[in-house]
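Is this the right way to post structure tokens for a design question? Let me know if I should format differently. Anyway, here goes:
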């Protein structure tokens, strides 16, 4: 019964390994299928091809640095605003079909910066245009006549004067302010969605806005406080419309009217839905990472991985002989499983991520070493091979479990608090550790039970 169960599980492992190997490296299977089809007239289908996702350092791309303007934001909320800015930029980039962008906030002296890495994008102008198109939507309330009068008088006072003369005028900065409207807390940050509409009488295009719950509350308060006054709608610091508020508006719905063509309205709706920025940003640095450098890095990384894998296999066979050979076979299956998992999730591979994967190969062997050491102890005590295998796995499991669990805790901490490249390292290492436990405890065990049977008792020197 046990023998039949072992055989069945081994068949399932072989099928899993076949799928994993061909998913990870489909070219060999597809070329073989093409050759057989050409010789026999058969129609063997190609295996599913799914490319690996490579990071900026491996396939090249664009590295952009933006500076955020926090002049109109309270310092206590600056961190949350920057977090919202990061999420919106990432959402917008994904909306336009660029997958796996890396968008992170960099704190420092002065205004914080936003780092944007777009792997595979080769045109910096297009990337900058894509992000820069994100409209900054803002609602401004009407200033009092007294405030407007003071600003207009100050503008007249500084008009025609040289910069050094202007700086001697008291409160000269007032001349830079909008004389008619002042900013409010209601911005595109609170926009849930927008859609195109048409005026009933003129059939002109307009933009219909729907705020989220928090935005609806702010909009209701804003309209209640400004009944009889104008409420201006600005997009990218440009006044679009300034409708008069006749009554308090509940429900979080607003509309933007103006001299839009249908195409302009459609583009604006698409951009607003892709994510309106809560604060203005400007680009201060851009860098193109060439694919040639990425290709060299990838080639060197793959060579390092192959050399490391072969060194581990050679060590296992020399030290542990037949069990080491079976463990090496399990290690081949392990590599194929992890690589196929990287494709299926998918995981964006960077140099750091590949380093984490290579490290996990060594850690996968650690579990086998603990198991084989226990097996040797059981054999020295005179136990049969089958019982020695069972006891070896049973007694080694607590050590394997605890050591790998501790490593997974470190991986989780690195993934949650570290920067993007370290996150890639933590993710690939963590996935590798989980798969290594499956490989050592399940695949290696089944291979040992299948190949090392009672007839091997006289060849114990191979163990």
């Amino acid at each position: 019964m046990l023998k039949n169960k072992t055989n069945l599980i081994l068949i399932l492992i072989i099928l899993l390994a076949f799928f994993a190997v061909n998913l990870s490296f489909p070219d060999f299977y597809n070329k073989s299928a093409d050759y057989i089809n050409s010789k026999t007239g058969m129609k063997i289908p190609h295996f599913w091809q799914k490319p690996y996702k490579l990071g900026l350092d491996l396939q090249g791309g664009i590295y952009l640095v933006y500076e955020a303007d926090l002049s109109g934001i309270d310092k206590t909320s600056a961190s949350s605003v920057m977090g919202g800015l990061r999420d919106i930029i990432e959402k917008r980039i994904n909306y336009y079909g660029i997958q796996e962008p890396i968008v992170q906030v960099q704190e420092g002296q002065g205004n914080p910066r936003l780092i944007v890495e777009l792997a595979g994008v080769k045109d910096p102008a297009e990337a900058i245009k894509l992000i820069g198109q994100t409209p900054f939507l803002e609602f401004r309330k009407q200033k009092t006549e007294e405030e407007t009068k003071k600003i207009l008088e100050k503008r007249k006072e500084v008009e025609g004067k040289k910069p050094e003369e202007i700086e001697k005028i008291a409160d000269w900065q007032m001349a830079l302010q909008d004389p008619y409207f002042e900013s409010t807390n209601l911005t595109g940050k609170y926009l849930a969605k927008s859609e195109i509409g048409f005026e009933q009488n003129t059939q002109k295009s307009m933009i219909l806005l729907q705020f989220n719950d928090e935005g609806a509350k702010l909009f209701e308060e804003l309209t209640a406080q400004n009944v009889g006054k104008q409420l201006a709608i600005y997009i990218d610091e440009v006044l679009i419309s300034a409708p008069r508020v006749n009554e308090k508006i509940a429900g979080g719905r607003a509309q933007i009217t103006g001299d839009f063509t249908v195409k302009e309205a459609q583009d604006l709706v698409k951009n607003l839905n892709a994510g309106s920025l809560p604060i203005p940003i400007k680009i201060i640095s851009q860098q193109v990472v060439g694919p040639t450098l990425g290709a060299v890095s990838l080639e060197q990384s793959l060579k390092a991985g192959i050399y490391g894998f072969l060194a581990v296999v050679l060590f296992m066979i020399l030290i542990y002989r037949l069990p080491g050979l079976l463990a090496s076979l399990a290690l081949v299956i392990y590599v194929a499983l992890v690589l196929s998992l990287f494709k299926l999730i998918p995981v964006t591979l960077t140099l750091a991520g590949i380093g984490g994967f290579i490290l996990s190969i060594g850690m996968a062997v650690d579990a086998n070493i603990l198991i084989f050491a226990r097996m040797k102890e059981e054999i020295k005590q005179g136990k049969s091979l089958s019982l020695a295998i069972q006891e070896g796995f049973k007694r080694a499991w607590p050590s394997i479990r605890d050591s790998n669990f501790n490593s997974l805790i470190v991986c989780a901490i690195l993934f949650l608090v570290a920067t993007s490249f370290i996150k890639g390292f933590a993710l690939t290492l963590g996935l590798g550790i989980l798969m290594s436990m499956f490989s050592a405890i399940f695949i290696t065990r089944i291979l040992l039970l299948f190949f090392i049977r009672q007839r091997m008792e006289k060849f114990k020197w191979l163990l």
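Format looks fine. Someone answered above. Worth noting: The longest strand covers residues 281-289. The chain is about 55% helix and 15% strand.
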